[in-house]
Structures are given as C-alpha cells and as structure tokens.
Design a protein that fits this description.
Strand content: 25-35%
Distance between the termini: 40 Å
Shape: globular
Mean pLDDT: 97
Low-confidence stretches: none
Radius of gyration: 21 Å
Number of helices: 14
Structural class: alpha/beta
Length: 467
C-alpha cells in the first residue's frame, strides 16, 4: 500500500519552529508533510529521494524579489521555493507564471504607482483608498511605496501607511520622501512616519551605503532604531550590486537611487554621467542571455543602454559587505533585529541568499538554525504564511536541500513536487499566494492558490520567531 507520494531519506533536518536539528526522514502526501521519523519504510512510498549527507531546510522564502519573466528560473535554480514580488501587478504575476513558471509559490505587494502612474508627489485620500481596494481585489497582498525611486511627500507617504493599516492591507516601503532619500535619514524618517502603524521596510542594507556616515555606523544606527519596534518587518540582502533604472528623462536619470549611485563615486548626475559610469565599468546594464539576466558594462553596455532608449535595468556595486553582515546577524533579546535575508533579486542576478548565508555559517556568524530562521521561518511569519517556514506535520511540503560541501542548494521541492535538481530547473507553473479578498479573482488564472492570513503577519500581529 502506498502511504507517501514522496519520502526524503536521511537528511539533516533543520526546523527551528519545531525544534528539530537531527537526521530525519520526511514523508509527504498530497503536497503536505505527513510524517517525520528516524526511519520511514521506503516500501510505502511512490518515490524515494536519498538526501543523506545533505542539509534539509523548510523551503527558502525570498521576502523581497522582482520576478519578471526570468526570475522564476533564476530563483528556482538556487533553491528558492516561495517568492514575494515587491512591485508587480497580479495580472503580470499570473501571466509570467503561465509562460515562464518554475513551480514556485508567488505573491506580490504591488507598487501603488501602478494604479496612479501619472501621479506627482501627492495622492488624495480617495486615490489611496482606490489603489488599496483594487490591489486587494485583484489578489495582491498589499501595497508598496517606492519612495527611493519616485518619492511622495511625507504627508502622502504617512497617509498611505495609515490607510493600509486601516484596511488590513500589507504595506511595504522602499524609504524616501520628497524630504529625505534612500539613505539612513530616509530610514529614520520612515519609522517616524509609521508611528504606531505596521510597516515592512525593504532592504535595510540599501540605506547603509555611506551616503550620510560610515556604512557600518549607519547599520548600527539602523539596528538601534529598529529595536523594540514590534510591528516593523524588515529584510536585508547580501549581494554587492543593487538594482535600479537606467531611464533618463531629458538629461537627468529618473530614479533617485540612480542619482545617489552616481553621487557616491563622484559622477555627474546626468545622462552623460551615467554613460561614463557604464563605460568605466561602474554601472552595469542588465540584459537577457540564455533565459536569464546578465550584467554587461563598458562600450557594449553603453550600446545596449542607448538601444533601449535608456529604459533598461542598471546595477551598481554599492552595497557595503561589512554593513550587510552586521545587519544580517544582529540580535536583540534572542530575536534577529532585521527579520529576514532577502535578495531584492529574482530577475536581477543577485539570488545569493543560500550561498552567502552558508558562508556566514561557515564563518561562525550564523548557525544553521539561525539561517533557517532568516531564510524560511521568519519570512513565513512576516506574511502570515502559517503552512510555510517549517516542516511539522501538516506543513506545506516546501523543502530546500543544501549540499554542505558546496554551500549551495542542490534540490528544491514545492508542494511536494521537485522543481530543481543540482541547479537544473525541472518545475513549471506554480501557485499564487493571495488573501481571501482576492481569492475569487486569482482563481480565474487557473493556478492553485495559497491564502495568507495577514492578521497574523508581523506588521499586524507583532509576532516573529524569537527562539
């Protein structure tokens, strides 16, 4: 009699929520974990996978991505199982999953400017409420403010945060307003604008690049400011490069982040300055090659940037490694101050959270248990995904298997289905994460759905793992 669709044999299971750090077999049936035991009889399994001498994590959740077309494959190949897009509309999420899906679970927190693309620096109350209603009805988890790139006034920003909290809508913020920018001052302002409201602050490391003070000192200030803020969710990433836009309007880069990057190395904040930065190898143009995104610089980069009418992705190597390590490892009373390690990647080539996280483990800055908290458990709790982030009986069978010798993911399993083996993506399609508000609309796309309970998300419950 077949009792299990799949059994993983002999892996070292690291599951902080359930206190597991031991060699265990995992039995999976109908997409969920149904048994953990030291020795499950393989005769009762339809399929058996030998993962002995491998580390088994709850499926890695990237809490901040930009998936696009290429991100599905790029994330799946490095062991990501669940991804939260921080900009896209639900319609584009579903379309790309249909055409390019690799079996991932995907939700989105959509850019509020998707609903008001011609808005300037302010939005009225009715416009804010209209955007929230549309986002939730379409199936998005909530709203993101991209203040670092296209800022609103502090007053409008604060009202968006407040209105999202009133509606129980997820709210994320790439900090910066017309008064501040994408830097430490913008980060501190964001905490003030939130007041007692819940708020997800995106990629904290992006505000600790040395624009105000020494990057490590900025990171320490950010950590100090976050302590005790129970309803502030946050993540940081470990890659050297950022992601921004090469678009120039007239003679000036449209994105304030791009402007900051040019200032950091003394380049003129102009189209000519950006062109020189690309030619010099400081700015990198992101283009597609082999179904993935790659970075091109020098004369070839300039040519591709100009051929795209400057409207193309750009990356700069502006993140400070010391500050990033401080942010990734800082704890307060047993809890991580910055909740999760993300990538802000997806279709930007910086999906390194497993590889670089394992380097921190090897260095001794994190334990395996710590890394599982940062990559799996805390991201699940940030978004109210109760079936994810752990491997207890009844949990979604989302699993990332890591080779301890290489420090990289060698297998990804999503809902009990293998989607990646040794870097080769074998999954397709995927599942959409939504809320009860958008479930009916999302069902029309024909994908299996997972429902997040935002009342249990950190920004509303104040609860995150602390063991």
């Amino acid at each position: 009699m077949v009792k299990y669709d799949l059994v993983l044999k002999g892996g070292f299971v690291v599951d902080p929520k359930n206190g597991l750090e031991d060699y265990m077999d995992i039995g999976v049936s109908r997409g969920v974990v149904v048994e953990l035991d030291s020795d499950i009889d393989p005769r009762y399994a339809a399929e058996v996978l030998d993962v002995s001498d491998r580390i088994v994590f709850p499926g890695v959740i990237d809490s901040h991505t930009h998936i696009g077309r290429m991100g599905h494959r790029m994330m799946a190949k490095v062991g990501v199982v669940t991804a939260i897009d921080m900009s896209a509309s639900m319609e584009s999420i579903a379309m790309n999953m249909r055409n390019y899906g690799a079996g991932l679970n995907v939700g989105t927190v959509t850019n509020i400017r998707n609903y008001h693309p011609k808005a300037g620096e302010t939005l009225g109350t009715s416009e804010i409420r209209d955007a929230i209603s549309k986002a939730m009805g379409e199936g998005s988890l909530g709203i993101k403010i991209t203040g670092g790139h296209n800022p609103f006034t502090p007053e409008t920003t604060a009202e968006i945060i407040s209105e999202c909290n009133e509606a129980g809508c997820y709210i994320a913020f790439h900090v910066g307003t017309t008064r501040t920018g994408s830097d430490l001052n913008g980060f501190l302002e964001a905490l003030d604008l939130a007041g007692g409201n819940g708020l997800h602050i995106a990629h904290v490391n992006s505000y600790c690049r040395g624009l105000i003070e020494d990057p490590v000192y900025e990171a320490l200030k950010a950590i100090s400011a976050l302590k005790g803020r129970k309803r502030i969710a946050s993540e940081s990433y470990l890659a050297l490069i950022n992601g921004t836009s090469g678009l120039c309007v007239g003679d000036v880069p449209a994105s304030h982040v791009t402007r900051n990057c040019l200032k950091m190395r003394g380049y003129p904040v102009s189209k000519a300055g950006l062109e020189k930065a690309i030619r010099d190898g400081y700015a990198h143009v992101r283009v597609e090659a082999g179904g993935e995104s790659v970075l091109v610089t020098g004369e070839e980069g300039v040519r591709l940037w100009l051929e795209a009418g400057t409207d193309i992705g750009i990356s700069f190597p502006v993140n400070d490694p010391e500050a990033q390590i401080v942010l990734a490892t800082a704890k307060d009373g047993g809890k991580f101050v910055v909740d999760a390690i993300s990538t802000d990647g997806g279709d930007i080539p910086r999906n390194v959270q497993v590889e670089y996280g394992m380097l921190l483990v090897k260095f001794g800055a994190l334990s395996l248990r710590d890394l599982a908290v940062k990559l799996s458990l805390n991201p699940a709790m940030m978004f109210g995904l109760e079936g994810k982030g752990h491997l207890g009986v009844g949990a979604d069978a989302d699993i990332t298997v890591i080779d301890p010798l290489t420090g990289t993911a060698c297998m990804g399993i999503s809902g009990g289905r293998v989607i990646m083996v040794d870097g080769v993506v074998v999954g397709s399609g995927g599942r959409i994460i939504t809320t009860e508000h958008g479930l009916d609309n999302v069902k029309k796309y024909g994908f299996e759905c997972k429902v997040a309970d935002l009342s249990k998300a950190k920004i509303y419950s104040g609860v995150i793992y602390g063991g």
